[in-house]
Amino acid sequence: MKIKIILIVGITIVLGGWYFVSKNNSIQNVSSITESNTETDNWKIYKNTAHNFKLNYPESLTITTVGPSKGEVDATGDESLLSIGIKNGNQTMSFIINPLGSKELGSYYASAKNIVDFLDLISKTDDSGKVVRRFIGKDTIDGETAYIYEIYRGSPNDQAVKGWSQQIFFQHREDIYEVDIYRKESEGNKILSTFKFIK
User: What's the CATH number where 91 sits?
Assistant: First the structure.
């Protein structure tokens, strides 16, 4: 009887320890968003006057938006849709900014009163029931709680981004920010670590 109790207690401790270590390791990977890095101090600065924020990005990348003719044009500082990447090449990341309740956000999300409501409405599976978005943790971006997901991009027409990548959501005032990091997560997280709201 004592052997059974010792065996059960031992197994419980081992399983509990494994769960704790694996859970903490997955969250540690997420915390890289808020790391400071002196390397980013020498990067170019983008300021957005429409949404009052700024961020730094490497010399090798450009910030673009969709122009009137639906083509890629250089960002001027008042956009709600941004792409950061190699000009006319692969994107590293993108920002989509829409106010809660706006037509741009869509009528499906009209009932959302805050970021948590909005995230509850976002689909986690595709039409076949396959999981395509999974929550992996929280972090902070300039004082705002950021909700970090992995999203599966399986578009047969876009093999460059096929697989799991990061998708981050946060709210500032009435705006919902969606940040997609397509590749080079470490570079995308460094860029995001420089994000600051302009007071």
Answer: 3.40.1000.10
Domain count, the chain: 1
Compute the distance between CA of residue 21 and CA of residue 135 in angstroms, rounded to an integer.
Answer: 18
Model confidence over 87-104: pLDDT tens digits? 656 778 999 999 998 988
- The fraction of the chain above a pLDDT of 90, given in percent, is 44
Query: ∠ at Cα 117 (115, 120), nearest 5°?
Result: 110
Quote the tokens at residue 44: 């170019």
pLDDT at residue 139, as a whole number: 96
Window from 39-43, 139-143, 158-162 with minimum mean pLDDT: 158-162
Q: What is residue 131's DSSP assignment?
A: B
SS3 at position 99: strand
Query: Residue 80 is part of which domain span?
Result: 3-197
SS3 label, residue 12: helix
> What is the DSSP code string of 36-70?
--GGGGGSEEEEETTTTEEEEE-TT-EEEEE-TTS
Task: Please name the residue that has the structure tokens 């990348």.
Answer: 61
What are residue 89's DSSP bridge partners? none
